[in-house]
Amino acid sequence: MSAAAPRSDAPVRTHSVIVYSDDPKIRDAVRTAVGRRPAADLGRVEWAESTTGDHLVGLVDKGGVDLVILDGEAWPTGGLGLARQLKDELADSPPTLVLIARRDDRWLAKWSMADAVLPLPIDAPALAEAVAGLLRQRESRLPVRRAGR
What we know:
Helix content: 25-40%
Mean pLDDT: 89
Number of helices: 5
Number of strands: 5
Radius of gyration: 16 Å
Structural class: alpha/beta
Low-confidence stretches: 1-7
Largest sheet: 5 strands, parallel
CATH class: Alpha Beta
CATH architecture: 3-Layer(aba) Sandwich
C-alpha cells in the first residue's frame, strides 16, 4: 500500500499576462511559446492581448496584471516606450519583458527599464524560462527591479 501525496487545499494561483503587439503572429508566437503553464511550480496563465498603447495602459491601470510582454517593434507605439511609461507612471508596475529585433536596441531596452529583454525571433524555451522567473518574482511580492537600475 503506497501513501498518497498530501493534497493541498490552497487554491491554484492564476497569472494575468498581457501580450502587446500590433502583429498577430508575434502575439500567437508568444502565447504558443509560453503556453498555459510556463513551469510546473506556477499556476495557469490567463492571457490578454493588446494591439494599441492606450488599450494596454488601460488594462494595466485596472490592476491585477502580473506580467506584460511587449513587442519592441510594435507600431505606432513601440513596446520600449510603453515599458518606460509603465515604470514611470505606476508605483507597482507589473514586470515587463520586451522583445527586440535588433541587437543595437539593447541600450534602448535598458533605458526603458524593462525587467527582461529577449531577441526576436522568439526562442520558446528562453521565453518560457524568462516568463516563469518574472512570475515567480511577482508572486513573491519582491521587487523585480533593483534600486538604481
